[in-house]
């Protein structure tokens, strides 16, 4: 796998990140920085690598669909952090880095000599990000953090699904992913502050904290009402009609966001001017109060139209709408291709492969996939030579002793 040349200016070019994290939240954070141009060195165990190299569908011998989703644009170095020499090399890499990201159990990094205070002594400008399950200043600081557990504890599962349905998790590990993005934001803020202070910071993130943030406006509603908000499935709690509806030949999304759109929806889309003139449906507040009357009739009316015709009529009436696609159809759609959101590359083991491209675009250019997800330890020799000036004999000695 060769690094690709790309003329797009990279805002984090020159920033080096030492990624000591594993699984998803930390790697997602590091990948966000990598996507923006940082040189991210991912440290993995010499034998097993990142845990996610054993999750999902196999891609070649040691990569998987799960691993590849969170590790593009990184270089992989293997180090045994249970060995003195492995820790020594990690400390030397940290001394030459701008950012360190780790998600060891609380106290784990310190036991290895890789904690914030220990690394700050050798690199005062270091921005150090610790990701844990729970805030480090609470009694639960040492509890391990897992996405699904936090989805339950933070009330996130209570918002999903239909009325009467039990707790339901997100389809993806949303808490891990949000934590990764929040962590990247905080790191960027610390790097910005360092420009004026010259000093690094200890960014401390917790899955529970970020999971609670996902409750967002539902959380505010629960506090105001003094009870859990009702579940609405694919519908909106306060806007009607708004949600997923069935046409004669498939589902689509219709979002009637204001009263003017409702008038056009009734008169121009489904030919029901009587609804437009009905006081029970004249305002969104009235429609919400009478949703049990309006929605069954509306659903029956929509089933009389082919989806393509409905989408055409809705678009002509300037009402936001769209198809409901399967995941594969969405990934392979013209829309995805036109936006350049799927990057294809040749893997030396698995042949033609694809990864998602970064979501970031600046000045009309998408941030590039400079390097596909790395094979385990693919860049060990190059990084040790480039940054630590080790020669072939020293590297061979480390490898013979299982340090790398």
Automatic annotation (TrEMBL):
PANTHER family: SUCCINATE--HYDROXYMETHYLGLUTARATE COA-TRANSFERASE
Source organism: Cupriavidus gilardii J11
The protein, known as: Crotonobetainyl-CoA:carnitine CoA-transferase CaiB-like acyl-CoA transferase
Keywords: Transferase
Family matches, as Gene3D superfamilies: Crotonobetainyl-coa:carnitine coa-transferase, domain 1 (3.40.50.10540), formyl-coa transferase, domain 3 (3.30.1540.10)
UniProt xrefs under Pfam families: CoA_transf_3
Cross-referenced InterPro entries: CoA-transferase_III_domain, CoA-Trfase_fam_III, CoA-Trfase_III_dom3_sf, CoA-Trfase_III_dom_1_sf
Keyword Transferase: yes
């Amino acid at each position: 796998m060769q690094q690709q040349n790309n003329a797009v200016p990279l805002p984090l070019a020159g920033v080096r990140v030492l990624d000591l994290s594993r699984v998803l939240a930390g790697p997602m954070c590091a990948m966000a920085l990598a996507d923006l141009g940082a040189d991210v060195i991912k440290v993995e165990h010499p034998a097993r690598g990142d845990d996610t190299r054993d999750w999902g569908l196999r891609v070649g011998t040691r990569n998987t669909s799960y691993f590849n989703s969170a590790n593009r644009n990184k270089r992989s170095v293997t180090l045994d952090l249970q060995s003195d020499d492995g820790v020594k090399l990690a400390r030397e890499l940290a001394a030459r880095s701008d950012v360190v990201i780790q998600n060891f159990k609380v106290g784990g990094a310190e036991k290895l000599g890789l904690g914030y205070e220990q690394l700050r002594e050798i690199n005062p400008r270091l921005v150090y990000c610790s990701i844990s399950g729970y805030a480090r200043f609470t009694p639960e600081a040492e509890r391990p953090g897992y996405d699904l557990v936090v989805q339950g504890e933070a009330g996130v599962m209570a918002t999903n699904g239909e009325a009467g349905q039990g707790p339901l998790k997100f389809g993806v590990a949303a808490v891990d992913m949000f934590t990764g993005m929040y962590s990247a934001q905080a790191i960027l803020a610390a790097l910005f502050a360092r420009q004026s202070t010259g000093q690094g910071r200890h960014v401390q993130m917790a899955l529970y904290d970020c999971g609670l943030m996902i409750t967002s406006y539902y959380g505010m509603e629960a506090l105001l009402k003094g009870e859990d908000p009702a579940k609405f499935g694919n519908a909106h709690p306060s806007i009607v009609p708004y949600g997923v509806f069935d046409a004669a030949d498939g589902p689509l999304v219709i979002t009637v966001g204001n009263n003017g759109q409702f008038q056009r929806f009734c008169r121009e889309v489904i030919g029901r001017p009587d609804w437009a003139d009905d006081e029970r449906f004249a305002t969104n507040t009235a429609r919400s109060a009478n949703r049990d009357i309006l929605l069954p009739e509306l659903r029956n009316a929509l089933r009389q139209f082919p989806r393509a015709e409905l989408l055409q009529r809705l678009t002509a009436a300037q009402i936001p709408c769209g198809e409901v696609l399967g995941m594969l159809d969405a990934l392979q759609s013209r829309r995805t291709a036109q936006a350049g959101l799927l990057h294809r590359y040749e893997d030396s083991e698995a042949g033609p492969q694809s990864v998602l491209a970064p979501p970031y675009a600046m000045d009309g250019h998408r941030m590039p996939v400079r390097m596909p997800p790395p094979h385990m330890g693919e860049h060990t020799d190059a990084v040790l030579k480039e940054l630590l000036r080790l020669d072939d004999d020293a590297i061979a000695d480390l490898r013979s002793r299982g340090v790398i």
